[in-house]
């Protein structure tokens, strides 16, 4: 009887509640916990072992291990027009995901969650995105390589993007037929002699 009396005195001393109120609140908390848990998981499912549908129960053979997705090496495309680049916008899962900055085409397939369909930057896939990146714009009208009218700061932003792409992605080609758009109408010295 001494243990029971000590427990009751301890409950009242530490909680400030009578033993009846303490046990009532404790029971209510357990019920609320069970109700909330049942909203997310069927209680019977917690006790079951997961069944692997791929394993053959009749033959007692282990299930085959899933193969990791194959990472394709970037394909070098060489010279590509803007129209040809649009085919690499992620709509065909068998094609790489490409985008261009300052006329250079990069394979961004490794970041499909960003540049692929439904990604936050999907708008840029398959496009020359220099102006949009310089302006930090998601306006489809800015998806081009026209650098005319950009401020010094915007050109620095674009240069930062280009450096990031050069570090992270493989250059697989270059846009052709867009010298005026990409270079703001100026032909660079290195291009004059080609």
State the strand order across the main sheet: 1-4-3-2
Spans where pLDDT lies below 50 across 5 or more residues: 180-194
| Average pLDDT over all residues | 80
Globular, elongated, flat, extended or rod-shaped: what is the shape? elongated
Strand content: 5-15%
Give the strand tally. Answer: 4
Order of helices and strands: HHHEHEEHHHEHH
Distance between the termini: 102 Å
Instruction: State the assembly state of the protein chains.
Output: single chain
Number of helices: 9
Largest pleated sheet: 4 strands, mixed
Structural class: alpha+beta
Task: Supply Rg.
Answer: 31 Å
Portion in helices: 40-55%
Subcellular location: Cell membrane; Endoplasmic reticulum
Main location: membrane
Family: Belongs to the cytochrome b5 family. MAPR subfamily.
InterPro entries: Cyt_B5-like_heme/steroid-bd, Cyt_B5-like_heme/steroid_sf, MAPR/NEUFC/NENF-like
How would you describe the overall organization of this protein?
The chain is an alpha+beta fold and 194 residues long. Helices cover 42% and strands 9% of the residues. The chain contains 9 helices and 4 strands. The chain has a 4-stranded mixed β-sheet with strand order 1-4-3-2. A hairpin with a 2-residue loop joins strand 2 and strand 3. The radius of gyration is 31 Å and the shape is elongated. The chain starts with a helix and ends with a helix. 20% of the residues are buried. Belongs to the cytochrome b5 family. MAPR subfamily. Residues 80-176 form the Cytochrome b5 heme-binding domain. InterPro entries: Cyt_B5-like_heme/steroid-bd, Cyt_B5-like_heme/steroid_sf, MAPR/NEUFC/NENF-like. Its main location: membrane. This is Cytochrome b5 heme-binding domain-containing protein.
